[in-house]
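Task: sequence in, structure out. Protein: Amidase domain-containing protein.
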Amino acid sequence: MASTTVRGFSLLIYTIALLTFLSFLPISTAKGFKIEEATIYGLQLAFRNDQLTSRELVEFYHKQIQIQNPVLKGVLELNPNALSQADKADQERKAKAPQSLSPLHGIPILLKDNIATKDKMNTTAGSFALLGSVVPRDAGVVAKLRKVGAIILGKATLSEWSYYRSNTAPSGWSARGGYGKNPYTLGTPCGSSSGSAISVAANLVAVSLGSETDGSILCPSGYNSAVGIKPTVGLTSRAGVVPISPRQDTVGPICRTVSDAALVLETIAGFDINDKATIKASKYVPKGGYAQFLKKDGLRGKRLGVVRDFYGFGKGTLRHETFELHFKTLRQKGAVVVDNLKIENLDEILNDQSESIAMGLEFKLALNAYLKDLVASPVRSLDDVIAFNKKHPKLEKLEEYGQDIMLFAQKIKGIGILKEAVLNMSRLSHSGFEKLMITNKLDAVVVPFSSFSSILAIGGYPGVSVPAGYEKGEPFGIVFGGLKGSEPKLVEIAYSFEQATMIRKPPPVRELKV
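Result:
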């Protein structure tokens, strides 16, 4: 398949571009609109006021990618049709076409490279094993984005196979994309939706999509001072997404603001004929979408639980003081903070191996089904992928990072074992997190970072990560988690907290060295 890869810039061209970039900060259009850090609402207003076109916006992001991506490695591949999509959006806006009224119309969006697009781009999960494969159709979430006129800017880097290949590979690394870097620290971005978070944080794109099985939206969002929504499993379609676990996989937005994330979520949520899980979960989608829950007083009357077992930093540390200040803010905004709660079976949950066993079995079955459904592919099964890696050890850095997780999944067998593991996780969730929420009449729990991700993952529960602070320049987030279908409450809580604190700031401008 034809593709436009983001690599191979010469040092000379890069240096010239960087100097140009530094000379003209902050970046604006000719009509005075500053694109950097702009929200979806701001971009749409600029469109309406003739301060900006979708073409200009795409060209801006192309330039930023050309300048910053050789170091940050947040973008894996650009869509060669992005500018033509932008021109179409500009024409539809002038003609006042019905679809131009959508908040995402004419807005560029970056997709994690496990989300299929039926176009000139690849969908590889970061592996050379899937390079050149042909998908049968757009992923369900991509079809919804195209329907409202969003511009598919390209594919984001990720931890290869959504960090389900090797325990020793760095988080944020893939064979195709290299090692993505946190734009704040140039250190780890956390994975597996690393490139999605890197790119929105560094203003390489307006908004992005990631996916989470256990922590892969919440963790990179926190590490890169972004907002990430991990939806209830089934709220958004996983059809056309390279899978790990159909029981836990979910697709969600990674953006710079809660309002942007809510607008993306309401666009991609809902029924998809190709994903049975969306049938049951569609009952959770509110009429009128999620933007209606962007309320500054959204914390008023909410009951928020604090489980201190997840606050491992000691008193007197910056992080401890920061979260104590956040609890005070939550109370000042009208929330009831129920402190010192306990999940009765927490030790059992954290030491239980059911998730690992179930994911190994589910990965093999789900990946085999995904690969067999491809129109064309160099690999057709997990066995083929493992064999490909062995055949191309240098290409996939096999000797350095291995493929121990895939080998585990290849060997594990038994539908009976899978059923037992799933039942056990259901029991742990009901007697743990759900009991905590119901007994204490909570609207959400509030936890630091992505430390709660496994609790949310095994039960298919939603969570939202919002920027919470910086320690020596390194961002960290705060996560609000709730029961299935509680996204409206979580959006209210997250937005109210965000507006009360306004913590996010863009990455520092530094001299990037290739």
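DSSP finds 19 helices and 14 strands in the chain.
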